[in-house]
Amino acid sequence: MSAVDRLSVFKTYKLYVGGKFPRSESGRVYEVTDAKGKWLANAPLSSRKDARDAVVAARKAFGGWSGATAYNRGQILYRVAEMLEGRKAQFVHEVADAEGLSKSKAAEQVGATIDRWVWYAGWTDKIAQVVGGGNPVAGPYFNLSSPEPTGVVAVVAPQESSFLGLVSVVAPVIATGNTAIVIASERSPLPALSLGEVLATSDVPGGVVNVLSGRTAEIAAPLAAHQDVNAIDLAGADEALAKELEIAAADNLKRVLRPQPVDDWSATPGIDRMTAFLETKTVWHPTGSLGASGSSY
Amino acid sequence: MYSRYARRYARLVTMPTNAPSPTAERVGGTPSAHALADVTTSDSTLRRFLHGLPGVDAVGLEARAASLGTRSIKTTAKAYAIDLAISMVDLTTLEGADTPGKVRALGAKAVHPDPTDRTTPSTAAVCVYPDMVATAKAAVAGSGVKVASVATAFPAGRAALDVKLADVREAVAAGADEVDMVIDRGAFLAGKYLKVYDEIVAVREVCGTSARLKVIFETGELSTYDNIRRASWLGMLAGADFIKTSTGKVAVNATPANTLLMLEAVRDFRTQTGVQVGVKPAGGIRTSKDAIKFLVLVNETVGEDWLDNHWFRFGASSLLNDLLMQRQKLATGRYSGPDYVTVD
Amino acid sequence: MASAFEYAPAPESRSVVDIAPSYGLFIDGEFTEAAGGKVFKTVSPSTEEVLSEIAQADAEDVDRAVRAARKAFEKWSALPGSERAKYLFRIARIIQERSRELAVLETLDNGKPIKETRDADLPLVAAHFFYYAGWADKLDHAGFGRNPRPLGVAGQVIPWNFPLLMLAWKIAPALATGNTVVLKPAETTPLSALFFADICRQAGLPKGVVNIVTGDGRTGAALVAHPDIDKVAFTGSTAVGKEIARTVAGTRKKLTLELGGKGANIVFDDAPIDQAVEGIVNGIFFNQGQVCCAGSRLLVQESIHDELLESLKRRLSTLRLGDPLDKNTDIGAINSAEQLARITTLADQGEAEGAERWSPACELPTSGYWFAPTLFTNVTQAHTVARDEIFGPVLSVLTFRTPDEAVAKANNTPYGLSAGIWTEKGSRILAVANKLRAGVVWSNTFNKFDPTSPFGGYKESGFGREGGRHGLEAYLAPSSPEGER
């Protein structure tokens, strides 16, 4: 081998929609730089049509994903953690560039991110027991409340925490059976786009997570107004945008998770990010009479 | 609601264009004359038919019965209901200690329930054991009050068919106008529906044209509402003139819910076959308030075609005195007391 | 139904309730005049008799009420839960004691039958307070983190269909969790909320914890828009719900909405038919169909359509429509002239679009607001009567052939509040219930409610749950992500 440095091969970053890696239908890209302004890559600049396509893909995937057993979803999410572990070096590199972190700080972030997948993988078959249950109604009825996924959730990923923050908002959405359209951090979309590559090789069915990069406001507006989107997480929207999106979301009464200040994404999350996108279904059925008057069956 | 079963089981069904008038009932007619005749051709067809009947949701049935029990029957409606209820009583004594004297007293009471008020209607019948039929007949002679006799080894029904038929023959020979038979609950619960059916048909034949047949299911022993619905249809298919809840000899007798269920059965049977069958709740109905609740069930489930003692009866003994006290209260505005009605 | 057995009138006595000629707003423990001095009349829908004159609160009055609630919040939220609990238990007991009075009052002001206010509304109201009373000192164990905090002042706007029950659904959990409230009852049914104010007085509830502001939509809008409330809870139409969602966008106000519905009641060919008929009747004619979770779309398996309809029509012919105070009345009056006009318009539209209309022979009283129980057959998914919430005693009948088709049709609506399933096959119940996108699924029953059972919708039927442990969440601050659990 020659000692001369070989010229490296650049990666073309693409969107992740419906399990495929399309370019933006608009053909546009934008320049992504590191914290110091050095060019890193060109990322797809998604259009409203890309957003629309992502909704179609997410809706198509919803039946299968929400209908999968919770155990199966847990297995798949754990598989994501396994795949990430193997590509850890790549993500450390991308996160360090994106957030201007040292190698060791970035490695901490990536490690915490992988652990977050493991945490949520374990939740899939427990959340129903924690938030659902039998209700002791005053009558001869069996009455059970169970959580069910809300549906298609648009996720405005945090702008600053490009990977840990991203996974901290995406994993809870899909752990419970929702499907997601994720708008990557506008300035630092590369970890999110690379995550799509991991998901594609982790048995996560196509369409369960769809990743779009570009101008947050431009992509979020059509998603907030889309009648076939059931919920929106505004984590990465600023105050003005969040208000605008919340107003648009009212048109079909999307469930809205408002942006909340997060000092430290590595802190143990509660279950609120899961329950925000869960519906409670309560099913009643007669149990047979109380038996006071004879035949009770 | 049952026509899909009828379609499945019956050939050449010809539905009557009008419901029959109450007088067009069949006494002693052949049970095979109606639209569902061929469901009884074998044990398996009968079983398939009975198990193909729609299920009964116990909670819903009891809720409906309870809801009708909240009707508030006042003033003129109450007066009407009390007289109607009196006229529907099968005044009953079925004790080992029954004597001719006791039965004569009961007969006198049936004819003139309230000696102080001759406008009080007579009861529908007196109900006695077969060996008391002749005494009872004499006691009610000339009054229009019928004599009903329990039979078929009442109340358990655990005897050979010959013995049961002999029981019926004795009652009919002694002049019984009505025979209250018990079904073989053991056979029913064992799934031997055709045996139960054949037994009813045999009793029906012995009754001939002279006695109307009431078929007692002992609903408390059948235990489930699905069984009560099946037994109702089984009894009607076999030619019952009345279907009756119970003997009064077990823990659970007539309830609003099981009576409602049987009313639904006779309603649907008439829709299917054109044949009207009566209903008799028996046992446990002791107060006017209870009786009126049952009449509300009749009124709102099968309507006025059944609001007549030809089609609805109460098997009871102590109920009558409570009805009489309520009747006196309505007439005088004062509450009556047990000293103002006769103890028999 | 002409019968030999005609039920004589059995009216519940009005003398048990004493309605004053006029009522003010209940703010900071006192009844006061509205700042603008404006009043409106509340009438009895069954007779159009004016029952009382009610103060119309404007923005200034709402502000006064919110300030009173804010002032009361500090002490109320600092009370030990066990003390708050005892206030709520007192309220529950007083409601039980005064339930006949309140039932008659509700029937007068709303038009619904006394049978329902007596046997459904009032028992549920008392039970709801009793249930949430018990939570007040057990919130640490409710699954929302340790020492969960109240939000502050709750602005609550409720509808006219279950005036006192909706008040209970709103106020009981709010108070149990340590919030204070400003509640606006519906314009056409303000009386029971004002009587509730008197119950608060009897219970010795601290001033300002519960404030009642009466008025129309403008009052509600002023309340929802008030900058110093922390929580908005609304039950009512989807259109207004969306407007409220826009109003609170970008604020800190936590929002729960319980809105409209177009519930599908699915009857399979193996259903317990007699009970299904009762369930259908209860599903759409309970409270004259003015129920957000009404089973207003009957989806019947085609193979039993004709027979089921025959049974249903026979049953409808026995419904007794008339004086709501009569204990034997099944169908009372429509709540207002406005609602009657809406029902009439939609029903006429159903007819114009080609659906087949049927009502039992039924004589309507000459004064008041009345609408006969109505069935539409030959209805398709495209008909307005199959899509729009009518909020009246109007049932649209559609057919299906397979369970898949039933589920698809049931879900084919922007709403998602309730659904019914009738079949004797257990696995089919569970499979279909699983696929229905609705917050409450009644199998082999319908329109059952209980304080322990969470209630609320999917999709455009709103969000958040009322009732049960779930109902607490709407009134508690989000748990801190760190350390609290």
Rg of chain A, Å, rounded: 21 Å
CATH topology descriptor of the largest domain in chain C? Aldehyde Dehydrogenase, Chain A, domain 1
3D shape of chain C: globular
Task: Say which CATH homologous superfamily of the largest domain in chain C is assigned.
Answer: Aldehyde Dehydrogenase, Chain A, domain 1
Count of spatially separate domains of chain C: 2
Radius of gyration of chain C: 22 Å
Give the second-level CATH assignment, the architecture of chain A: 3-Layer(aba) Sandwich
Number of strands of chain A: 10
**Strand portion of chain C, in percent?**
15-25%
The overall average pLDDT of chain C, rounded, is: 97
Mean pLDDT over the full residue set of chain A: 95
What are the secondary-structure elements of chain A, in order, as H or E?
EEHHHHHEEEHEHEHEHEHE
Could you tell me which chain pair has the largest interface and how many residues each side has?
A-C, 43 and 50 residues
How many H/I helices of chain A? 10
Broad CATH class of the largest domain in chain C:
Alpha Beta
Keywords:
heterotrimer, A: 297 residues, alpha/beta, Aldehyde Dehydrogenase, Chain A, domain 1, 5-stranded parallel β-sheet, 10 strands, B: 344 residues, 8-stranded parallel β-sheet, 14 helices, globular, disordered N terminus
